[in-house]
Amino acid sequence: MARIKVYYFSPTGGTLQVAQHLAETLGRLLHAEVEYHSYTLPREREHLPQFDADDIVLWATPVYAGRIPNKTLDYVRAALSRSSNMSIALVTFGNRAYDNALAELVGLMEEGGMKPVGAAAMVTRHSFSDTLGAGRPNEEDLAALDRFANQVAAKLLTLTSKLLTITVPGEAHPEKYYTPLKTNNAPAGFLKAKPSCNPDRCTRCGKCIKVCPMGSINGNDGIPTFDGICIKCQACRRICPTGAVAFIDPEYLSHVAMIERTFAAPKQPEFFCSETVLFRQLRTDETPLLDDFLYEAIFIPDGVAAPPKSIVENEELQVYVRNFGRQKDDRCLVAECDGKVVGAVWTRVMDDYGHIADSIPSLAMSLYKEYRNKGIGTALLEQMLQLLRKEGHRQVSLSVQKANYAVKMYRKVGFEIMNETDEEYIMLCNL
Ligand SMILES: Cc1cc2nc3c(=O)[nH]c(=O)nc-3n(C[C@H](O)[C@H](O)[C@H](O)COP(=O)(O)O)c2cc1C
Ligand code: SF4
Ligand code: SF4
Question: What pLDDT, on the 0 to 100 scale, is given for residue 160?
Answer without folding.
Answer: 52
